[in-house]
Design brief:
By secondary structure, the protein is mostly helical. The protein has one domain (5-180). Helices cover 67% and strands 0% of the residues. It has six helices and no strands. Helix 2 (31-50) packs parallel to helix 4 (87-107), helix 2 (31-50) runs parallel beside helix 6 (160-180) and helix 5 (122-141) runs antiparallel to helix 6. The longest helix has 21 residues, at 5-25. It is globular and about 40 Å long.
Length: 181
C-alpha cells in the first residue's frame, strides 16, 4: 500500500495478529464460528500482505490480479453464505473492498497518487463510510455485557468478545488501507 513506512508496519502487525487469532478461532466446536473464522483469517492475512509498505517491498505485477481473484472468490462464497446469515454480507463487502483495492493498486504500480487530484472517488468514499460506521458500531458492541452465571470455561475459539475485537481490528485496518488509496 501507499503511505508512510511505520504506520504501514503497524497495520501489517495488526492484521497479521488478527489473522493468527482467527486461525485459533477455527478450532471452535461451533461450525458457524469455524466457518466465519476461516473467512476472517483470510481477510486478516490478505490485508497484512497488502499493507506491507511499498518502500520496503514492491510486489511483482501479477500479485494484484491474484489478490483480486482470491478475494473475488471469497466474495462469491460470502454472497452464497449470505442467504442464511446476514453477517456474511459484511464479509461480502470486505472481500469486495479488497478486490477494489487490488484493482486500484494494479492500475497504478509505483504511483503514490492513485486517483490524481480528482479527490476521493465515489466507491472509495462509500467504502470509507461503511467501514467507519462498522468500526463505530463494533466498538459499541465491544462494551462488556454481563456474563451469564454458570457458563463454565470457554475456549479461545468460543470467546465472543475476542471475535468482536478481531472484527473491530480488521475494520480499523480496512479504514486505514482505504485512506491510503
Amino acid at each position: 500500500m501507499h503511505g508512510p513506512t511505520s504506520p504501514g508496519w503497524l497495520l501489517v502487525a495488526l492484521c497479521a495478529g488478527t489473522g493468527a487469532y482467527c486461525l485459533l478461532r477455527m478450532r471452535s466446536s461451533v461450525e458457524e464460528q469455524r466457518r466465519a473464522a476461516g473467512g476472517e483469517a483470510l481477510m486478516g492475512f490478505g490485508m497484512a500482505a497488502m499493507a506491507v509498505p511499498g518502500t520496503v517491498f514492491s510486489p511483482p505485477p501479477w500479485t494484484w490480479p491474484l489478490y483480486a481473484v482470491v478475494f473475488g472468490a471469497a466474495a462469491l462464497r460470502a454472497l452464497w453464505a449470505a442467504r442464511g446469515s446476514p453477517h456474511h454480507l459484511h464479509h461480502l463487502v470486505g472481500s469486495a473492498a479488497m478486490v477494489y483495492m487490488a484493482v486500484v493498486m494494479a492500475a497504478s504500480p509505483g504511483s503514490h497518487h492513485v486517483h490524481g487530484g480528482a479527490g476521493v472517488p465515489l466507491l472509495t468514499g462509500a467504502l470509507l463510510l461503511y467501514f467507519t460506521g462498522y468500526v463505530l458500531l463494533s466498538g459499541v458492541r465491544l462494551v462488556p455485557a454481563a456474563v451469564a452465571a454458570g457458563t463454565g470455561a470457554v475456549g479461545w475459539g468460543d470467546r465472543p468478545e475476542l471475535a468482536r475485537a478481531c472484527r473491530l481490528s480488521m475494520g480499523i485496518g480496512m479504514v486505514a488501507m482505504l485512506l491510503t488509496l
